[in-house]
Amino acid sequence: METTVALLLLCLFMVIIDSSVSHNDKITMLPGQPQVGFQQFSGYVTVDERKQKALFYYFVEAEVDSASKPLVLWLNGGPGCSSLGVGALSENGPFRPSGEVLVRNEYSWNREANMLYLEAPIGVGFSYSNDTSAYVALGDKITARDNLVFLQQWFLKFPQFKHSDLFITGESYAGHYVPQLAELMIQFNKNHKFFNLKGIALGNPVLEFATDFNSRAEYFWSHGLISDSTYKMFTSSCNYSRYVSEYYRGSVSPVCSRVMNQVTRETSRFVDKYDVTLDVCISSVLSQSRVITPQQVAERIDVCVEDETVNYLNRRDVQEALHARLVGVKKWEVCSNVLDYKLLDLEIPTISIVGSLIKAGIPVLIYSGDQDSVIPLTGSRTLVHRLARQLGLNATIPYRVWFEGMQVGGWTQVYGNILSFATIRGASHEAPFSQPERSLVLFKAFLESRPLPQLV
After folding, report:
1. CA distances (Å), 79 to each of 154, 163, 173, 293, in order?
2. What mean pLDDT comes out for the span 284-298?
3. How many C-beta atoms surround the C-beta of residue 184 within 10 A?
4. What is the DSSP letter of 285?
5. pLDDT > 70: what percent of the chain?
6. How far apart, in whole angstroms, are the C-alpha atoms of residue 198 and residue 363?
7. 293-326: burial string, b at 16+ Cβ within 10 Å, e else
8. Of 108, 164, 368, 429, which is the active-site residue?
9. Contact call for residues 284 and 306 (beta carbons, < 8 A)
10. Active site annotation includes 257
């Protein structure tokens, strides 16, 4: 690990970028964009000169007083799906596409922070490598390293934010990306104080393969999606983690094939597994979880928000305004078609890394949209409670409801004033997309290290 940190330090000083470069990345105006008072930037950061690997970012300053607001990095999952198209343009960014124009998102997270969206790993969205071998057998370790180098180089472009409080957030497979990146940052800081990391927040994250995946059976059954007999098969004959393990090793057993066919028949393709209450006209931003729902990989859901996003980001005038370019692909996609990710990295638990971050004094929030059956709240809650017990953390806020206005926003519990769990009531796998106002309340409380609101 010391070798890794040394190499990263070398990368930091190999490329010297003048801070004036940030002005070249400034977005004058996005096509169809309403007038706003904050600045936007986008462009590329080189993370590997030899392979000419360049990561694309979109940065939105806070609406008011950006100099005093924290900096938040947002990462979407997949692995291989876009933080620009999903996070920024469908979830918590300042705009959403609507036909030929952009409309304001009233609950954008840049009301509270400077938001940095990164299209990672290499091969996602507008991010690219001129050496296509970089897309092959790419996994968690390389992704974490590239993301760390990206941040180092980005701060050279934007030195005014280097001392801002830094938070890393994300959802789904970002349950791998975020803790692994934070771990490298802490290791780097031991010798070279560079990152002012103040906390991480993970939405419906993959943290521990078996617990997260096998909570799906109980969720299906308790919400009426499968029968008693199928539930029994799904927990005894072939659970979901076994099925996924077999699937990605190319050898699904007859018993698992039988069980999954029965589960699929009963849950129906007309129910959105990422939001079990949503009607079938769904946003396929949900495809960011295609890897953790392998039987749906071949399905293509071309409706609603994704169509708007794909159409918008494939416009030549939009790409020019974003200082973006397509390299080695013909069109921008929500999820990468060129990336060959090491899918078995999915089985490597990251909950232990979360524990090491807490030991290092980094606050952690794990939150769940409670209508998501893909990474259900029950699995995440179990993992958080187990981790708290292992770390000897007592409940400092007992399990209780929290409020957004006069309505219940969800439920929460806090351990040792450093590890928090929260649900967002009525939210999907992509909580800021489905419950934007409640998600913003949660986000604000997280940044300010305050308990989620109670009814006054």
Report:
1. 22, 30, 6, 12
2. 50
3. 22
4. G
5. 89
6. 7
7. bbebeeeebeeebbebbbebbeeeebbebbbbee
8. 429
9. yes
10. no
CATH number for 1-209+305-456 (one of 3.40.390.30, 1.20.58.100, 3.40.50.1820, 3.90.226.10): it is: 3.40.50.1820
pLDDT given at position 269: 82
Distances (CA, A) of 113 to 159, 169, 383: 17, 12, 29
Longest dimension (CA), the chain: 65
CA nearest neighbour of 289 among 172, 437, 155? 172
pLDDT, tens digit (0-9, with 9 covering 90-100), for 308-333: 899 999 999 999 999 999 999 999 99
pLDDT at position 324 is 98
Residue 339 three-state SS: coil
| DSSP states of 89-135 | IIIISSEEEETTEEEE-TT-GGGTSEEEEEE-STTSTT-EESSGGGG
- Per residue in 56-100, pLDDT tens? 999 999 999 999 999 999 999 999 999 999 999 999 999 999 989
Task: Look at residues 79, 72, 102, 80 and name the one whose alpha carbon lies nearest to residue 90.
Answer: 102
> Is residue 429 annotated as part of the catalytic site, yes or no?
yes
- Known active-site residue 172: yes
Amino acid (1-letter code) at residue 178: V
- Mean pLDDT, the chain, rounded, equals 90
pLDDT of residue 305: 62
pLDDT tens digits for 10-20? 454 444 433 44
Cite the residue boundaries of each domain of the chain with CATH code 3.40.50.1820: 1-209+305-456, 210-304
Q: Which band of pLDDT confidence, cut at 50, 70 and 90, is reported for residue 158?
A: very high
In the block, residue with structure tokens 């057993």: 253
Tell me if 238 sits within 8 A of 402, measured CB to CB.
no
Which one from 372, 428, 434, 439 is the annotated catalytic residue? 372
Homologous superfamily assigned to 210-304: Alpha/Beta hydrolase fold, catalytic domain (3.40.50.1820)
pLDDT bucket at 288, cuts 50 / 70 / 90: low
Q: What is the pLDDT of residue 294?
A: 63
Q: Which of 172, 284, 368, 373 is catalytic?
A: 172
